[in-house]
Amino acid sequence: MTESAYVRPEASRPRDASLSDWIAVIGGALGALLATLDISITNSALPQIQGQIGATGTEGTWISTGYLMAEIVMIPLAAWLTRVMGLRRFLIVMAALFTLFSIYCGLSSSLQEMIIGRIGQGFAGGAMIPTAQTIVRSRLPNHQLAIGMSLFGLTILLGPLLGPVLGGWLTENSSWRWCFFLNIPISAVLVTLLWSGLKPEKANLQALFKADWAGIAGLTLGLSSLTVLLEEGQREHWFESSMIQWLAIGILVGFALIAIGQCKARQPVIRLRLLANPRYASVILIVAVIGAGLYGVSYLLPQFLGNVSGYNAQQAGSIMLLSGIPAFLLMPVLPRLLGRFPTALLVSLGLLLFSVSCLLDIYLTADSVGHDFYASQILRGFAQVLAMMPLNQASMSAVPPEEAGDAAGLYNMARNLGGSVGLALLGVLVDRREHAHDAVLRESISANSTLGQEHMAQSTSMFLSQGGDFALAQLQAMQQLADTIAREALVMTYADCFFVLAFALAATIPLALLLKAQPQGKRS
What's the pTM? Predict the structure, then answer.
């Protein structure tokens, strides 16, 4: 037997990722976790932040909106900036900027300073989300891709869940400023991992001079205007506001510039032609709806627990965190699931379970408390893992490796934009359905209503026994009745919102049938 006979089996064995490859993957995942964590870590601390920097409730929403706006703009730009600067240099610069802006936020004493810091944080953080996915696709061989994508997917799911709990705990036990100072040691670890795991690359200044500047300007103007319009539209009564009208003009101009870039630029900053691939387009549509579901639930559930059940931010965050338990339970077996079962089956099952979990919450009552969400939250956790993890992998396997950066940018932008659109639509739904339910309940409880008269009599007697003034007791009884009607209308409104989310998620299941596995030989 010749020597080549012994060498051939060894040569045919798939290459395993090296230690530096895994260091790079872990570094990328840590960066994505840091970026997604800071989206929501300030939510629990907003009342304290607003009080110390002198911001009203409406103004305080810009602390979150500024971050989200900058992040959405940066995500699709990350692939182009990676080509210009090189991956290691780009990520280390972004990690350093993220740390500096985090310190700036922690030291802020005014709303303007806080908003500037949050915009800087969002811009730097947005770079670390798609590049983490790109690192996995470019550094891991095909047979280990599922492990890397599972690690990336877990950070995307756990970041928004851990944020409110961690922010609430830090605020209650120390200071809201530690929501930002916490990033300093994490960023130090992140920079160390990136420096060790990624190879240095030469800067490509030609890509800077030959850039699609029309597309970059359009992307910045269009996406930032769209994000602010979606966030502020309901509060500003939509197109009754001149600000919303100008934002709409900004969106049209921005998207027109993007279209010009698609036609004129040799290498557009955002490769929309990737959407011509039905498999990839299906991934984008599904992840946008899932983004609406993730953001929608993260908005509705704390609102219900706070406004109806009387929970504080930390208590509500602990209920939210329940959906992260399945991620830890499935972590050891998830790569095998991704390799053994078809993507279409896993995603369809995840969407179905996600829809069912929302349907479980349409039977809420004014007496519902945290334990009433246990079943839906646990089921929702399994659903998110089964739907998101295969989608992460499908988004990368649907395109060649050289287009992985652009595909990752579109994928993550679609998830965040889907969340913004979902929140805007839920805001409109909450406002209109709450008024509608309130009006119907008030009409049904008239002065001639037997139930209404009995309720008023009992309440008046109760307050009369406490105060002794009949006129005051009647006023208190009427106020109690009005509060009861308002609370019941709010509960019914939340039930409507969960039903709409369930319907939207179920409607995307047919799209999952297009997510057929690509033959292994066609991947690189």
Answer: 0.79
